[in-house]
Design brief:
With about 80 residues, this protein is an all-alpha fold. The chain has helices spanning about 35-45, 55-65. About 25% of the residues lie in helices and about 0% in strands. It is globular.
């Protein structure tokens, strides 16, 4: 997706947004119903880079569980 692009992901569908470039990007994520933003706020405290380290993924586990997020497939780990 390029600048100005839009993606709609219906609830319950696996997805994995990421920035595949070295440039900083901005994303507007609109969720409904409200409240899921607390997941991202908590996650930001433990995932501080991409790809994440094994330690970050381990620390994210309880946060994901608390918010009903399931990791499908292997995590993209830093080498």
């Amino acid at each position: 997706m390029g600048p100005g692009g839009l993606v709609h992901v219906p609830r319950g569908n696996p997805h994995a947004p990421f920035n595949g470039t070295d440039e900083e990007v901005r994303a507007l994520i609109i969720g409904n119903p409200a409240g899921f933003e607390r997941y991202f706020a908590e996650l930001a405290g433990v995932v501080t880079g991409f790809p994440p380290t094994a330690e970050m993924v381990a620390a994210a586990g309880p946060i994901m569980e608390r918010h009903g997020v399931e990791l499908v497939g292997p995590a993209p780990l830093a080498s």
